[in-house]
Structures are given as structure tokens and as C-alpha cells.
Design a protein that fits this description.
By secondary structure, this protein is mainly alpha-helical. It is built from 13 helices and five strands. The strands form two sheets. The protein has a three-stranded parallel sheet with strand order 1-2-3. Strands 4-5 form a two-stranded parallel ribbon. Helix 1 links the parallel strand 1 and strand 2 (42-47). The chain binds adenosine-5'-tetraphosphate. Adenosine-5'-tetraphosphate binds at residues 15-17, 19-20, 23, 25-26, 29-30, 48, 153, 155-156, 189, 191-192, 201-205.
Length: 336
């Protein structure tokens, strides 16, 4: 009988910025699915620290956040022998390719990016060129690994589109060089909104800590934050327009328990927001408990984290440098 060889797994790339302590939003919207992605695909997962400096970071705190996010990737169950886990700044090819791609991206294209418009408003005192060129660095991240798939939330769709345009442009100008990445629409993660302003997404860099739940918050802190979440005066637990605070808590509860909105409404019929909030807090505490426990183990083992980062940087560089060399050769650079 003829031996059959399995088709190679598709490569998927996903990044998280160490711009603060990851929130329940980052977890339910992205990280919770990463372990499944790592099993199904050839995964590369990065701590995107170069992206994080588009906003000012305090050095000692930043260093801690980078290590914390790496420890979190291990805590959610990613295996550094199975997937490539790395810190972006430890792979110089990202900055090198980003510069090159800047020269293949038009100013007009970047000016249309809605995230730039939003972030330049919220950081009006520091509208730096890096913030403007952020999508080009993101394109470099993706294209270096010849990623077939990139999981994207609604807010990143426009950036992935630009990465595809840049790849196609380069491939047409020279010859096929980059895999043109496709968006990966997997199991729908929730878009978690701020607890204090449910019209805004929950963000780790929000100046008001009551607006987000960090994945490392202690149980009593989680309870307090959910208790003070903004709701409405109607008092009935149901999903409806104009009840964004309750809708958000219902989405969080559904993600943690697997219940549907209809089941939640039935379970809390005739009960007040106090009971509902207590149940949501309990579900979130239980959801995050194992992650927090494993995180504590990894984050205290600095030697192991260093080893994981070094191994990841080496594996990532091997793939990334192959692409970078190809690009440089096609442009006409003289290689060493
Ligand atoms: N509120 C959210 N709900 C669902 N998913 C979310 N993500 C972020 N916030 C929510 C998803 O988490 C992944 C990693 O995000 P990121 O750190 O790369 O950047 P971000 O989207 O800018 O996250 P933050 O928390 O809002 O960071 P800051 O405050 O620094 O801007 C992404 O897949 C993202 O969609």
C-alpha cells in the first residue's frame, strides 16, 4: 500500500501587546482560543512589545509586563516545543522588514486607518510616527512567517487588509515572495466591553482600573469590579438594545458558562441585578482561577521564562530570516 503523507499544517500567527496586564476581554476574545489553534495549526504566538511602545511605557513596568505576558501564554497551555512562542523585539527581522515595507506602503493608505485616528485622539500628546506606521509593522509580523491565517477581531480587519495589499503589491512587483494571509474566523469569542462604559471595548490600557478585569485580579477584586459595573434602572436580566451594560455581563457569563442568552434570561427571571452580578463574578473567578494559578508558577520562574524566550527567538528567527533574505535579494540589496 502506498504511504500517504499528511498535508502540512497551515501556519497561524497571533500577537498580544504587553501594554498592560491582559484583561478578561483579551482572554475571552482571543487567548482562550489560542490553545485550540495551537493544536490545529502550526502556531506562532508573539508578545508584541515593539507595537506596545507606540504608546509611552514606564521601563521597569514594561519589562515586567513583557515577562508577565510570556508567562500568561504558558499559563493558557501553549507548549513552547509545539508552537513558536517569542518576544517580538528579540527577533530583529521584524524591525528590518517593517522598514522595508514602509517603502512599499503609501501615506494615503495609512491615513485611512481608523485605529490610528482613534489612538491619536486618545494619545494626543504623543502622535508618533510609530503609531502611524503600526499596521506596516503588523504586516511585517505576519508576512515574515508566511502565515496562512491570522485570527482577527473586528478592530484588526482593516490592518489585515493592508497586510494583504502590501504582500500582493510586493509579489507583483518582483515575484511571489509572501503568502497572502487570510483572516481566520474561528469560534466566535466575545467582544467584551468596559464595565464603566459599555459602549467602549474593555482595554488593558484604560486609565480607570474599574473598567476592566485583569486576568490576574484576585477573586475579591473581581467581585467588587463586577458589582460596580454600570447597568440600567430596569432591573430585569434580558438582552436588549439600550441595555448595553447587562448585555455585556450576559456575554461574559455566556462565555464562561456556555449558557445561551435564553437560558440566562430564564435562570434569572424575577431576580435582580445583585443576584446576577454575583453569579457573573463567580463564573469569572472560576474561569480565571486555573490560569492565575499556573501564571503564578511560571512568572516566579525567571530562568525558565528566559529559556523559553531564547528558544522561541531562535526558532522564530530561523523562519523570519529566511523570508527577510528572500526579500532583500529581490530588491537588490548586497547580502553579506
Ligand atoms: N475587549 C475585548 N474583547 C474581545 N477581544 C479583545 N481583544 C482586545 N480587547 C478585547 C483581543 O485581544 C487580542 C490581543 O490584543 P492586543 O493586546 O494585541 O491589542 P488591543 O486589541 O489593542 O488590546 P487592548 O487590551 O485594547 O490593548 P491596548 O489598551 O493597549 O490598546 C486581539 O486579538 C484583540 O482583538
Amino acid at each position: 500500500m502506498e504511504a500517504t503523507t499528511a498535508a502540512p499544517k497551515k501556519r497561524i500567527l497571533s500577537c498580544i501587546q504587553p501594554s498592560g496586564i491582559p484583561t478578561l476581554g483579551n482572554y475571552l476574545g482571543a487567548l482562550k482560543n489560542w490553545k485550540t489553534l495551537a493544536d490545529e495549526f502550526d502556531g506562532a504566538f508573539a508578545v508584541a512589545d515593539l507595537h506596545a511602545i507606540t504608546v509611552r511605557q514606564e521601563p521597569a513596568q514594561f519589562r515586567k509586563q513583557i515577562n508577565d505576558v510570556l508567562a500568561l501564554l504558558l499559563a493558557i497551555g501553549l507548549d513552547p516545543d509545539q508552537s513558536i512562542l517569542f518576544i517580538q523585539s528579540q527577533v530583529p527581522a521584524h524591525s528590518q522588514l517593517a522598514w522595508i515595507l514602509n517603502c512599499y506602503t503609501q501615506f494615503g493608505e495609512m491615513s485611512r486607518m481608523t485605529q490610528f485616528k482613534d489612538k491619536s485622539q486618545s494619545h494626543a500628546d504623543n502622535v508618533n510616527v510609530g503609531l502611524f506606521a503600526y499596521p506596516v509593522l503588523m504586516a511585517a509580523d505576519i508576512l515574515l512567517y508566511q502565515a496562512d491565517l491570522v485570527p482577527v477581531g473586528a478592530d484588526q480587519k482593516q490592518h489585515l487588509e493592508i497586510a494583504r495589499d502590501i504582500a500582493q503589491r510586493f509579489n507583483t512587483l518582483y515575484s511571489p515572495t509572501f503568502t497572502v494571509p487570510e483572516p481566520y474566523i474561528g469560534k466566535q469569542g466575545a467582544r467584551v466591553m468596559s464595565l464603566q462604559d459599555p459602549l467602549k471595548k474593555m482595554s488593558k490600557s484604560d486609565p480607570n482600573p474599574k473598567s476592566y478585569i485583569s486576568v490576574f485580579d484576585a477573586p475579591d477584586v473581581i467581585s467588587k469590579k463586577i458589582k460596580s459595573a454600570v447597568t440600567d434602572s430596569e432591573g430585569s436580566v434580558r438582552f436588549a438594545d439600550g441595555k448595553e451594560g447587562i448585555n455585556n455581563l450576559m456575554a461574559i457569563y455566556a462565555c464562561c458558562t456556555g449558557l445561551t442568552n435564553e437560558q440566562i434570561e430564564a435562570d434569572f427571571a424575577g431576580k435582580g441585578y445583585g443576584d446576577f452580578k454575583a453569579a457573573v463574578a463567580e463564573a469569572v473567578i472560576e474561569e480565571l482561577r486555573p490560569i492565575r494559578e499556573r501564571y503564578e508558577r511560571y512568572s516566579n520562574d525567571k530562568a525558565y521564562l528566559k529559556e523559553v524566550a531564547a528558544q522561541g527567538a531562535e526558532r522564530a528567527s530561523r523562519v523570519a530570516n529566511r523570508t527577510l533574505q528572500k526579500v532583500m535579494k529581490k530588491i537588490g540589496f548586497v547580502l553579506p
